[in-house]
Structures are given as structure tokens and as C-alpha cells.
Amino acid sequence: MKEYSFQTRELNKKKMGQEVFDLIIVGGGINGAGIARDAVLRGMRVALVEAEDFASGTSSKSSKLIHGGIRYLENYDFKLVFEALSERTKLFQIAPHLVHGLRFMIPLYDSSRVGMFKMGLGMWAYDFLALFQAPELHERLNSQISVERMPILKQQGLKGSYIYSDAYTDDDRLVHETLRSAHEVDAICANYMKATEIRWNEKGQFQSLLVEDQITHEKIWIQGRHLISSVGPWTDELGKNLIHKWERVLRPTKGIHLTFLKERLPLSSAVVMAAEKSDRIVFGIPRHEMVIVGTTDTDYTGSPSEVKAEPADVDYLLSIVNSYFPGAKIQKEDIVSSYAGVRPLVRDHSSSEGKTSREHSIWSDTRGITFVAGGKYTTYRLMSQQVVEQALQFFELGERIKFNKTLTNQPLNIHVESERYRQMFYQIESLADYFNRSVKDVTLLVERYGAEAIQILERGQGLDSIWEVEALHAIRFTMCLHLTDFMTRRVPLFLAHRDHGTEFVSAVSLVFQRELGWSNSQMQDEIEHYQQYIKKELNWK
């Protein structure tokens, strides 16, 4: 695949100042990335800018699930569940290296709000809405078999459980891979480019966007025919700053997650918790590198940039974990890490945060701007398609016909086509021998990159740790500009390692220094910035 580095960013900045684009996209999260890929595959000329790092907002702070949303059945959001399950099937095909099947258990107790019969109806509905195409259909277990499957589960009052299928993902990396896919077809993208002003033409229509490089402070006017806002929880902030007579559209809610070592919370499958407490659902999600527990769902009124876990959030999740797994005796000291994000839910005057719809909204300003907010991570591909189709209504009929067909059902890149991806797992031992790496490290790379793992290993020869190898790849192929961006959004070091990867910081920083030409003082600043990031995120301690 083509290089996608800091050098690419410099070239893209020049192009942004010289060309006229069909679409200018503000926001480099999953929706912005999906919109860029959809539009550029149709043949449109696309520019995308992100004020911080790609996926630095909500798109790296999710529960990291690709799921239909079993909880939404209770709100009778059947359309949303059907859409999500349909998109889940597509994502298994287009991103098998990032979307992995996972079994979920819903334990039911005497005190649960939903009984075994009603939950059973929900399970059949879930399989039906998935058109019975889940990796496995649901199972009903009695209390004894439930405990055999999940030995640490609380037994008192347990009536039984249901097991069903969904999937987990690397949410931040799905953004990066989607942007790389768009870049392959010549989408012009750059991070750390903040939108600051709109220029209108003599007819009052959108003409150009002023962006400021957050690293060099250079300012560039980007000319375009249509502007798309995909900034998630910053939608109201962007609208207020750039659009006149803006009315608030969001009901932001905060979600926090905790991470644990798998040996400290040994879950045999994912677990759906808190069904007997409220309309909130808390997941326990085992992954290859950690267990994630979350999420909370509370109204949030602050800046999305300042959101963080508070002691009350942590106490709430710990109380849920210990009520389901009392024998584990989980304490705050067992928490490896935490992360917090803001959901950009659209205001619908619901009575509670949990009842607020996860449906997305797409609307346009007649002056040539289209907005998207709300929605589920799982449905980003469909949302992106709909946003582009909405924007095309501002184009001439001939262009609408020319750009009519979406092509986003194809794999993100040739390295992860399903059959090729599966075959890579038969080569792991030979690759480990050839590159003198451990089977564990090569397995990690194959799981995360498919056949591209071979090129990554080739480029990384001479580097000691697998994290240095991945750092080199991240710098050259994901436009990674800062140490913190790497530690938090390219690899799971911050979330999954007890020391947050600080033992690897020096070696990884040297890779950045060689690639980006940092001075020693710059490198020290980057290390200190990462230390401050850890302190901020874990301030509740």
C-alpha cells in the first residue's frame, strides 16, 4: 500500500491549498473516514481534515464492539438493530483483521427485570433480525451449565443464561485502516488541521474552509463545492463557531470503561451485566490482550476534550463487576487503565440517557453543508453512504448519476481479503523462524494486519521489540506524528499493560526520533506529554 506518513501530510497540505474539491470533510473519526472512503471510491475529489489525531475523539473511546445492540430491542428499535446486524455481516467481510466474532452470555437472576421466557423471545428476534447469519445461533443454558461455562459467575439466585454471538473490534485502527483505504484512491487527508472559518460566495453558498495547522500554525484556505461536518460530540461547538443562528442538536452522554488483566478477571466469554439494576447495560469483554468493562451512560455538559473518568464512575462499574463475580474480589488496584468518551446522541426529549435513541441524523444547510450526528459505530459504513447521497443532492443531475454507486462493500485492502487472511495463520511458525521473532509476536501482527504482516516484519528487521516494529509502520503508514498517538491509538499499550507501556517508551521514541527528525529535547517533550496523558486519564486514582 502507498506510504501515508508525515511526508504525505505535507504533500496533502499543498494539494489542499491548490485544488478545488467536490467534498471537504471536517472530522477524522470513523464517520469522516467512512465518508471519505465512500466518496472517493465513487470518483469524487475529497479532502478531509481533523483538528487532532485521527480517531482521537469518540472513535477510540467506544466499547470496541461491532454489535446489533441487544438492549435496543427493549426500546423497540428494530430498524436500528436490523441495520446494525446487517452491517456487522458486511464488516466481517471487509475488515476480518479488525472485526472478530465473540460469544456473549446474559446471566438472569431472580431479581432481573427480564425473565428467561421474555429474554428467549429477544434472542430469537436477534437471530431473526440477523437473518440467521450470526457466527453461531443463541443457546439457552440452565443455572448449572451457566456456572460450568463461567465458573466465577455468582450462583445465588441464578436462573440460567443465554449465549449469543456478536463481535469486537479495534475501533481506532478501523478508522486508520479506513483512511488508508481512502488514501489509496487519492483522498487528501491530514490530521492536526483545525477548521477555523468558512468563506461564502456572492450567492451565500459555501465556497472555502480555512484550516490551521496545529503543528506549524500555517493557515490554508481549502476550496470546495460542499462541506460535510462529521465531528461527533463537537457538532454543536463547530456549528456555533462557524454557522450563524445555530440551535443545539445534541444530548451528549459520557461513557467510561475500565480495563483489567485477563488473569485477574478470567471471563470465558463476554458477559452482559446489570440487566436487573436499570436500563443500562454493562459489558465485560475479554479480548486477546485485556478485559474491558463498561460502559456508563450519563448526561455530559462539559467540553468533549475534557472528559475523563471520575471516582463515582469507577465505583459504579466496580460495584457491577463485584455483584456478578463476587469471588473475584476486584479492587481499584486491579484496574490497569481507564478511558472516557462522549457519545454524540441526537436530542429526542427522551426521559433518560439510556432511552435516548442511537439512531443517527443527517441534515443539510441550504448553503451547501451536510451534518451527521448520532448513530452506532457498527453502522458507520451505511451512515457514510447516506451522508454522501445526501450531499449529492446539491450536485447537478449528471454528476449525481456519475457518482451514484457506492463501492464500500469491498475489503479495506488486498492484504485482508477473507481467504487470504485465513491462510496467513498457517504461515505463522515459518514466518517466526524466518524473521527470528516469537510465534506470539507474529500471531499478533497477522491478526492485526493480515498478509501485510510480512512487509511490516521485513521493514522492522533490526528492531528489538514488536512495538518498535509497529511504531515504524504507524509512522510511515498511518500518519502517526506523536508518541502519545502511538501508545494510545495505534497499539493497546496504554490500555492493556500494567505500566502502560512505559518500559518500551525509550526504544519506541528512538524510532520516532529517527523517522521524524526529533531533537533530544523534542523527544523528551513527547515522553513527558505521554506521562501527563496517563496522569490525566487516571486522575481518579
Structural notes for this entry:
With 541 residues, the protein is of the alpha/beta class. The chain folds into three domains: 178 residues, FAD/NAD(P)-binding domain (3-Layer(bba) Sandwich); 189 residues, D-Amino Acid Oxidase, Chain A, domain 2, CATH 3.30.9; 124 residues, Alpha-glycerophosphate oxidase, cap domain (Helicase, Ruva Protein, domain 3), CATH 1.10.8. The chain is 38% helix and 20% strand.
> How much helix, percentage-wise, in residues?
25-40%
CATH topology-level fold name of the largest domain: D-Amino Acid Oxidase, Chain A, domain 2
Determine the structural class based on helices, strands and strand pairing: alpha/beta
- Termini separation comes to 42 Å
- Stretches where pLDDT falls below 50 for ≥5 residues? none
Q: How many helices?
A: 19
Task: Give the strand content.
Answer: 15-25%
Task: Tell me, rounded to a whole number, the average pLDDT.
Answer: 92
Please identify the top-level CATH class of the largest domain.
Alpha Beta
Tell me the total number of β-strands: 20
User: Which architecture of the largest domain would the CATH scheme give at its second level?
Assistant: 2-Layer Sandwich
Please tell me what the overall shape is.
Answer: globular
- Characterize the largest beta sheet: strand count, sense, and whether it forms a barrel: 10 strands, mixed
Q: What does the radius of gyration come to?
A: 23 Å
Q: What count of domains describes the coordinates?
A: 3
Q: What's the name of the CATH homologous superfamily of the largest domain? A: D-Amino Acid Oxidase, subunit A, domain 2
